[in-house]
Specification:
The protein is of the alpha/beta class and 271 residues long. It is 35% helix and 9% strand. It is globular, with a radius of gyration of 19 Å.
Length: 271
């Protein structure tokens, strides 16, 4: 089953070249490129977490999406820029330059096929900047190509309402949210008997500097975590994961609807 969580009717590789050639209103067809990672997620989660979450959320959203909105998912790019986890066995990482080159050349092919709306759906927190650079460079290269670099978790959703305050602030990797949603998507791959609670060590106190946000500092996971976990995985539940998956996928339905209706702002356009 090559399409995994994606509905078969929405899986771009299942189309023939003649079907792609004859698609109507091709400039408004929404093409989505999921981008994940293969990297450590602690002793209790598989290394496919980010890729699985992206595909799971997208698949659920496409199931809910109005069938009259033409949208197709490309195969996931499973490898990403994961060098913050390079010291943990199993992590497979690309350089920023390689990932950027792959995104640019993929976009060339999508544009050449006549499409004009491309979503870079990124599910790994270590590479949103690469998505943003790619999107800007693709649009600069093709002025009529609309490109949307979107982090999977950034759509409106209820996830933070379900988390403890400390988890909201510091639970950024393999903690409650990711473990819960994996219990919903791939429960047989989650080893809750190995789940741990571990928050980052040695963070600066009373400082403007933070791991993420407006004033970040560079860090490697091995410097701040013994297990690779940054958060509390022990409190994760499938019920919580079901609610998170449903909410995040709802956010993606609204986002895809907005992208379908979107027209590139231009000084010559009438307001």
């Amino acid at each position: 089953m090559l399409h995994n969580f994606i509905p078969a009717t929405r899986f771009f590789p299942y189309l023939t070249w003649t079907e792609i050639k004859s698609l109507e209103d091709k400039e408004n067809v929404v093409i989505i490129q999921p981008v994940g990672s293969i990297e450590q997620h602690g002793p209790h989660l598989p290394i496919v977490v980010d890729s699985a979450i992206g595909l799971g959320v997208l698949g659920k959203a496409l199931e809910k999406l109005d069938p009259n909105i033409p949208t197709y998912a490309l195969p996931s790019l499973y490898y990403g820029k994961s060098n913050e986890h390079w010291q943990f066995p199993g992590t497979i990482t690309l350089s920023a330059q390689t990932l950027l080159a792959v995104l640019m050349e993929m976009a060339d092919s999508i544009y050449r096929s006549g499409f004009r709306k491309l979503v870079l759906m990124n599910s790994h927190g270590g590479q949103p900047q690469v998505m943003e650079i790619a999107a800007r460079d693709i649009h600069q290269k093709y002025g009529d190509f609309m490109v949307f670099p979107i982090f999977t978790w950034r759509v409106p959703n209820i996830t933070k309402d379900l988390l403890a305050d400390k988890e909201k602030e510091l639970g950024i990797h393999a903690g409650d949210a990711e473990t819960s949603i994996m219990l919903s998507l791939l429960p047989e791959q989650v080893k809750m008997d190995r789940a741990v609670k571990e928050y980052p060590y040695g963070l600066p106190e009373d400082s403007l500097l933070t791991m993420e946000g407006k004033m970040p500092f560079a860090w490697l996971t091995k410097e701040i975590s013994k297990t690779g976990v940054l958060g509390d995985a022990t409190v994760a539940t499938k019920e919580k994961g079901d609610r998170i998956l449903d909410s995040v996928s709802d956010g993606w339905v609204k986002l895809i609807e907005d992208i379908y209706k979107f027209r590139q702002p231009h000084i010559g356009n009438k307001s």
